[in-house]
Amino acid sequence: MKYLIVTLLFLTFTNTCNTKNAKTASNQEKQIEAQQRVKFLITSLNGKNVAKENLHITIDEERNSISGYSGCNTFSSTYTAEKNSISIGFPMASKMHCEKKVALEDEFFKALSEVNIKNIIKDSLFLKDRNGTVLFTGIVLNE
Fold this sequence. Notes:
Layout: H1 2-36, E1 37-45, E2 48-49, E3 56-60, E4 65-69, E5 74-82, E6 85-88, E7 92-93, H2 102-114, E8 117-121, E9 124-128, E10 134-140
Antiparallel strand pairs: 1-2, 1-3, 1-10, 3-4, 4-5, 5-6, 5-7, 8-9, 9-10
């Protein structure tokens, strides 16, 4: 009888540990997936505060794509990256016309075409031109 109780306790303890390990592994996989697709609220564009404009960029490392909202239209593009260097392809955008946002979108897409350096430090995004001038800054949006 003692052996039966000890065996049952052992099996229960082993099963509990395996369940915890499986949950931990699952959480780690979710964290990795989340890091492959990250959405950033753009807080500055060419040094100007644009946080109230709700501009955002989503970087999807699995698909090598970048997408977001440029002030009036949504856009998407592919990119190639090596270390901190990034080259963004020509973006495709929806074709809405927002009279008050034309200048903002023009500036957004011009700056996007000049991006050559991507730095992500903690929860902050820095997109720079080839000279190191910061074109975009952003912070992670948790959705």
